[in-house]
Amino acid sequence: MTQKKKTPQRKSSGTEKSTPKAAVSVAKKTASGTASATVGSLTVEGVSVAMASTQDAAPQCPTRRDFMVLAAGAVGAAGAACTVWPLVDSMNPAADVLALSSTEVDISAIAPGQIITVLWRGKPVFIRHRTPEEIKEAKEADTAELRDPQKDAERVKPGHEEWLVLVGVCTHLGCVPIGNKGEYEGWFCPCHGSQYDTSGRIRKGPAPLNLAVPEYSFVSDKIIKIG
Ligand code: FES
Question: Is the CB of 173 under 6 A from ligand 1?
Answer without folding.
Answer: yes
